[in-house]
Specification:
48% of the residues lie in helices and 11% in strands. The protein is an alpha/beta fold. The protein has one domain: Aldolase class I (TIM Barrel). It has a five-stranded parallel sheet. The protein is globular, with a radius of gyration of 16 Å. It starts with 8 loop residues before the first strand and ends with a helix. The relative contact order is 0.12.
Length: 179
C-alpha cells in the first residue's frame, strides 16, 4: 500500500511504536525485510532508554537492536537501510543528547556494522541523528563524524524551522564535499 501511495521511505521502530504498541525488533525485522522486498527504503530507528543509558548499556542495546532488525540481510543490502539513532530519552524533550554522546553512539554503530557486515557496507550506510534536533544544535550535530544527516521532528513543524534545518544540512554537506 505504501508503494501504491507513492512512498519511497518507511520509518520503522520509532520509540512510540515500541512503547505504546508493544512492537519488538523481531517484528521490525519482518517489516524491514518486506520494505526492502517492495523497493522501499527503511529508516530503522535505534535508541536506548534512559535506564539503558544510566546503566551504561547504550551500545549493547543498540547492537542488539541492529543485529535483530538486520539479521536476515546480506551485506550488500545494508546500505539500502538508513539507520536513525534516536536516544529514546531525548525524543520530544528539550534535552538533546550532547554532541560527544552522539559521536560515541554513531561510532559504535559504525563499528558494529563493520563487525557484522564488513567495511564496505559500514562505509556506505547512512546513519542519521534524531532526538530534539533544533536550529540551535543542528550545525554542531551534523558536523560530527559518522553523522550523515538529521532526523528532525518538532523543529521542522514550521516553515521557518524547516528552512533553517535544511540550510544547516545543506551548508554541512558543502563543507563535507570540499577536499
Amino acid at each position: 500500500m505504501l508503494v501504491e501511495a507513492g512512498c519511497r521511505y518507511v520509518e520503522l521502530a520509532h520509540s512510540e511504536r515500541l512503547a505504546h504498541f508493544g512492537e519488538t525488533y523481531e517484528l521490525v525485522q519482518r517489516k524491514l525485510d518486506a520494505a526492502l522486498r517492495h523497493g522501499l527504503t527503511p529508516i530503522l530507528c535505534l535508541g536506548e532508554t534512559a535506564e539503558d543509558k544510566r546503566s551504561g548499556r547504550a551500545d549493547h542495546v543498540l547492537a542488539d537492536q541492529l543485529a535483530t532488525a538486520l539479521a536476515k540481510q546480506a551485506p550488500a543490502r545494508i546500505p539500502d537501510v538508513v539507520l536513525a539513532y534516536e536516544p529514546r530519552w531525548a525524543i520530544g524533550t528539550a534535552a538533546a543528547a550532547p554532541p560527544y554522546y552522539v559521536a560515541a553512539r554513531h561510532a559504535a554503530l559504525r563499528a558494529e556494522l563493520e563487525a557484522r557486515f564488513g567495511d564496505a557496507a559500514a562505509a556506505a550506510t547512512r546513519i542519521v541523528y534524531g532526538g530534539s534536533v533544533t536550529p540551535q544544535n543542528g550545525a554542531e550535530l551534523i558536523a560530527l563524524p559518522n553523522v550523515d544527516g538529521l532526523f528532525v521532528g518538532r523543529a521542522a513543524w514550521t516553515p521557518a524551522g524547516f528552512f533553517e534545518i535544511v540550510k544547516i544540512v545543506n551548508d554541512a554537506a558543502k563543507r563535507k564535499e570540499k577536499p
